[in-house]
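#structure-requests
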Amino acid sequence: MPHTNRKKKTNADTAEKKQPTKRIQVVDADGWVHVVGGSKKAGDGAAWTHAGDFERGGVAYINRTVEEMRGDYEYYRKQWESSEAAGELREILKGRERVGNVICLGLGSLQSARREGRRSSFTQLAALGMILEELAGGEEGKIQCIHQDPQFTDTDKEFLQTLEGTVVDDPAAFGHVTEDSLVYAIHCYAPVYTTISEGPKPKVVIGTDIDNFGRLNLTGSRTQKSNLHLTDPGRGTQAPKVWKIWSKTVR
């Protein structure tokens, strides 16, 4: 046999070496970016789920009682009301004419397993409470507020009812939008704004996605009568100021 200096391969040498897998970024439906290894299936949504006490429709939730929600709400309400943005919003709302009703869309569950999601929802709810208070003014009778979000749990609904809100199932809330309504839709998906644009033009629309509003005909012929509309910058003097307040604080 010819002489060779090659070492005889051992089992360790012949074992397949692990190659570094390419890491990719995947954005889920909630806008969260997840870094995953190439060896995992990109469609494995279970790996992206935030830990919670239970899951429904692919969304993770934590257990919460109405009393616990009330405590959380008071905590975030105090934080919101002490902020500079809250003071600015209150000034903007002073003297605004009363609306017939308020339609709140896409608030999010107050039982979300995502802590940031709960903070966002409670802060939006606290800001909504301020809007209702200011627009009602000293007039008798509170403004009716209708809530709709497919992610609401039974406890969410029960808590919102303690705040004198009315909770309806999707898509019933759109049927309550009139030309005298204020639509409160923070960080909603484009189809929500599309549905709003296809019905009666509300008196006021408050949201944070300026691009969606710019593409849709939400103002119609009522632009001059509508205060706090979020439209393209440059269309109306109020839009940029309100956009600045809400984009930085209520999300």
